[in-house]
Write a structure and sequence with these properties.
CATH topology of the largest domain: Rossmann fold
Distance between the termini: 75 Å
Helix content: 40-55%
Number of helices: 29
Bound molecules: adenosine-5'-triphosphate, magnesium ion
Number of domains: 5
CATH superfamily of the largest domain: P-loop containing nucleotide triphosphate hydrolases
CATH architecture of the largest domain: 3-Layer(aba) Sandwich
Length: 659
């Protein structure tokens, strides 16, 4: 390809990142600023000017889906598949396989679903979910923590271990031993083994480093220390490393990722050049204004696109109504020039995808869960399900049986088909474990009903369809129209997020979701939601009040806010609320004083700054008008439908009792 044409459509900073010689190079930039564009263009450009042999390029990212996207983008730049683009795990596995076969080593068996394995090692322990134990172990592994260092590391990181730290540590040792004894390796072992091979054999290390001379990493904010070790091993002393990342999109801390690695790299790596990209090419100024408000900062989000529609917040009576409403909105936005695939529905948890998928299917709108939900339709899973869902079955026992069948015997040689069959069953097993953890009185038919809700018509990968994804799964992607659903307390932020760090990660997740949208953005929540067989009342997400204020501001005809002003305003409000013990209003209006006191309690309970609930101006308006009912209250400035829904009863009560 002509090198010049690869520089077309790049701004100056992007162009520099693509053409700069040497390295290492770090691109630090916000969502939609062209990081992935720069990364793929740089690969293509360096090949085009004969600085790079395509077979010696390794482009890394974190999920198979993201790796697929990278490959697509490279292909569209005219590169064929000789550039390796993959995940850390995928590349490590290929390397190990090659080495095993060269040295005539019988490959160990891959333990791809650990839950059953760990459950048996643990024995039955009331109130402890093996899934939680597995997640905790994966966190430890990602952080290079073993049994000996676990207790200390878990304390330092503020973890809440599912077992006593001592018991966790013992179980980690037992797990490692049992794997050794049975010659099994899990996914994290792949990384550790690949590191060991390189570190222990200089000739092999030289060969690997020769092969992967040019290293590229997308989404570097989500790298974990174990992956970082492997990257360092691959790299040796080679300077040709190019990484891009956005600290504001770090969303895998729960899984052991360490965003500090990105910052540290940018600061400490000798000779590293840092490029910042400050312009956003993806979203309208209206959408970016909301994204900034959600995050509370706006660096790197200077809008470049023309104005678009003001985003909307919609509330629904329940989750089914919400899904139906989204289906209607999707149909409304669909047109000859806007195919289904231009729209996406994003949710916080996997389980929420199901109700949305069902509503779209019922409305005749083709929909596809991004990443695919294939295993449930396979014959082996259907057969197994028939057994599991009969009445009177002991599910705990059956799932134990299924898990051992999936694992099979040590040293078994499996065909490709058998590997696939077992991983489909493993997906089922995971669902069954999930069901067992949500239903206090599990039964076969209960399982059947629960899984039934997850099923739906599948849409072929190449067919035009609306895409459904979790916030995590949407990372790096973009759509002209985005519907973000389930913006409720308990989901956004997720209920188990408690510490400041966890809540911050949840905020970044919302920011990731919002910044996927190019032209239109719809946010929604439902006042009631069904989990399994329980229906629960819901409150809007604590973020919605703040977002609604921004929307009202835009609707009132104001220009999208200057982010600097907005941020400093927010900061000032925050620091005021922190520094000064709140002094009561410089006013003797008792209603206003009461309203402020109420707001303080509210803000404390929701762990947000007071201005997020209502600003002083709104409270003054309420105090002056002394509304007696909802409709009077709803007419006041600053009281949008979300805030009305959420706070009307309390506000009216405060006004009535203080007047
Ligand atoms: P994320 O952080 O979400 O992964 P990103 O920084 O990787 O975002 P890209 O996906 O590379 O951003 O780019 C966002 C969108 O902006 C893409 O559609 C891309 O083609 C477009 N884009 C990037 N740079 C420019 C530019 N200079 N001119 C026009 N469009 C651009
Ligand atoms: Mg990207």
């Amino acid at each position: 390809m002509d090198p010049e044409s690869l520089l077309a459509g790049l701004n100056e900073a992007q162009r520099r990142a693509v053409t700069t010689d040497g390295g290492p190079l770090v691109v630090l930039a916000g969502a939609g600023s062209g990081k992935t564009r720069v990364l793929t263009r740089r690969i293509a450009y360096r090949i085009a000017i004969d600085q790079t042999d395509p077979r010696r390029v390794l482009a890394l990212t974190f999920t198979r889906k993201a790796a697929g996207e990278l490959r697509d983008r490279l292909r569209s730049l005219g590169l064929r598949d000789d550039v390796v683009a993959g995940t850390f795990h995928g590349v490590a596995l290929t390397q190990l396989r090659q080495r095993w076969s060269e040295r005539g080593i019988d490959p160990p068996q891959l333990l791809d679903r650990k839950v059953g394995f760990i459950a048996r090692l643990m024995g039955r322990q009331a109130g402890v979910d093996p899934l939680d134990v597995v997640s905790e172990m994966e966190w430890a592994r990602a952080r290079l923590v073993d049994g000996a260092t676990y207790a200390e590391a878990a304390r330092a990181a503020g973890r809440t271990p599912p077992l006593e730290p001592k018991a966790m540590a013992a179980l980690m040792e037992a797990y490692a031993q049992e794997k050794r004894r049975r010659r099994l390796v899990d996914f994290d072992d792949l990384l550790a083994l690949a590191i060991r091979d390189i570190r222990s054999d200089p000739d092999y290390a030289a060969a690997v480093r020769w092969r992967h001379r040019h290293l590229y990493v997308d989404e570097f904010q989500d790298v974990n220390p174990l992956q970082y070790e492997l990257l360092s091993a691959w790299r040796g002393n080679t300077p040709d490393l190019f990484i891009v990342g956005d600290p504001n999109q770090a969303i895998y801390g729960w899984n052991g990722a360490d965003p500090a690695l990105l910052a540290r790299f940018a600061k400490r790596e000798p000779g590293a050049e840092v490029v910042e990209l400050l312009d956003n090419y993806r979203s309208t100024p209206q959408i970016l204004t909301l994204a900034r408000a959600a995050l509370g900062t706006g660096k790197g989000l200077e809008p470049h696109r023309g104005d678009g529609a003001v985003p909307e917040i919609r509330s629904y009576a329940n989750d089914v109504a919400e899904a139906d409403g989204i289906a209607e909105a999707i149909r409304h936005a669909n047109s000859v020039t806007r195919p289904w695939r231009d729209q996406a529905v994003l949710v916080r948890t996997n389980a929420q995808l199901v109700v949305v998928e069902q509503a779209l299917t019922a409305a005749g709108i083709p929909a596809r869960i991004k990443g695919g939900a294939g295993p449930l339709g396979t014959p082996e899973v259907k057969t197994e399900l028939r057994v599991l869902t009969q009445p009177g079955r002991d599910l705990q026992y059956l799932i134990g049986e299924l898990d051992s069948a999936i694992e099979g015997e040590a040293g078994e040689q499996l065909t490709q088909a058998e590997i696939e069959r077992r991983s489909n069953l493993a997906a089922l097993s995971r669902l069954v474990h999930e069901y067992l953890s949500v239903d206090p009185a599990p039964t076969g038919p209960g399982l059947g009903a629960w899984i039934g809700t997850l099923r739906s018509g599948e849409v072929a990968a190449d067919r035009d369809a609306v895409e459904l994804a979790t916030f995590h799964g949407a990372k790096g992607l973009e759509w002209p129209v985005v519907h973000v659903a389930g913006l409720e307390q308990g989901l956004v932020p997720i209920g188990y997020a408690k510490t400041g760090a966890q809540l911050d990660e949840e905020t970044r997740l919302l920011y990731v979701a919002i910044t996927r949208a190019e032209s239109e953005l719809y946010l929604s929540w439902a006042a009631e939601r069904t989990f399994g067989n329980k229906t629960v009342r819901r409150q809007p997400s604590p973020h919605l009040g703040n977002l609604q204020s921004v929307i009202d501001h835009l609707r009132a005809g104001h220009r999208p806010m200057d982010w600097k002003a907005q941020v400093s305003q927010g900061r000032a409000a925050l620091s005021k609320s922190k520094k000064r013990p709140v002094i009561e209003a410089d006013t003797d209006d008792p209603v206003f004083v009461a309203l402020r006191a109420w707001r303080r309690t509210r803000a404390k309970a929701a762990d947000v700054p007071a201005y997020v609930i209502f600003n002083d101006q709104t409270l003054r308006a309420v105090a002056a008008a002394k509304p007696a009912n909802r409709s009077q209250l709803g007419r006041l400035p600053g009281i949008g439908p979300v805030k009305l829904e959420r706070y009307a009863d309390e506000l009216l009560e405060v006004v009535a009792s203080a007047s």
